[in-house]
Amino acid sequence: MDERSVPVGARRCATLALVGLPNSGKSTLLNALVGEKLAATSQVAQTTRGRILGVVERGPVQFLFLDTPGFHQPKHSLNERMVRHIETALQEADLLLWVVDADGYLGAGERAFAKRLKQLGRPVYLLLNKLDLLSKGRLLEKVALYKDLMDFHEIVPVSAKFATNLEPLWTLLERDAPAGAWHAEEGVFTDQTERSMASEFIREKVLRKTREEVPHGVAVEIARWIEDGDVHDGQNEVPEGGVFIAAEIIVERSGHRKILLGSQGATIKDIRVSAQRELKKLLQRPVKLELFVKVEEGWRDRPDKLDRLRL
Ligand SMILES: Nc1nc2c(ncn2[C@@H]2O[C@H](COP(=O)(O)OP(=O)(O)OP(=O)(O)O)[C@@H](O)[C@H]2O)c(=O)[nH]1
Ligand SMILES: [Mg+2]
What we know:
311 residues, alpha/beta, Rossmann fold, GMP Synthetase, Chain A, domain 3, 2 domains, three-stranded mixed beta sheet, 35% helix, binds guanosine-5'-triphosphate, binds magnesium ion
């Protein structure tokens, strides 16, 4: 059905928060549900730092999905802000989608999170993600373990990575969407700007190519963004019909800078090439990307810096 043919009075609108522990697959699921890559994803915990909106229109229903950072104990100002984003989304949402790594261990973090969800008194869907990694027997075991924690409105096993079992999920969500006017403008699918997505996708490449403590101390700031046709000093090579982007990768220590650069600059080159490819896809025009690595000790605890980075 063409959503534009839906009479305004028959419309429904649901705000859904994708919440859970770090690395459970919330952002991968957001991307799968929206059918577009909106959020950075990686094997590193705490990839998502803010709240990311993804909008899907299906028949009479507009779904507003809020991807959130993973629930954790904050140790820096950055993390306090991340946890605040989770709280805001929990308050805003009609339905809470708790995404868990069903292949992982149900530990203290999950128990603490269940406690927080119960206090909200809102319908909670349990989405048992990473179904592709589980046998049927283990899946049933996991269902039983989670059911002991709290009452779920629905329990749906999914694989965000392979977009498996999403249709049954959509059917349930359509059933539960409350009546009401659509909140987002028709046809708009996110509130992220090209710039913020570009910096997130560059950071994603850094996370995917570095290990241990490096990823948590990395931020990306767009320093220059010159479109073909913009007036500029001619010092940067702007591709025809495209855009020149210079980005700063901020790290916490000079040792991390060394790791990022790699031997003879091999790692940063690799990051640049894969980020440039990704940005070309995102922006649908030629992209010339330049990266600089800068050390800023303690940036994660500097409010001015966090504000600048819109965190
Ligand atoms: N095998 C498998 N891997 C998955 C699935 N969903 C997500 N992953 C992987 O799990 C890792 C974490 O995925 P993300 O989507 O970044 O997880 P997240 O919950 O958003 O993580 P944070 O933003 O850190 O809280 C990535 O390496 C994904 O590729 C899945 O269904 N199956
Ligand atoms: Mg995420």
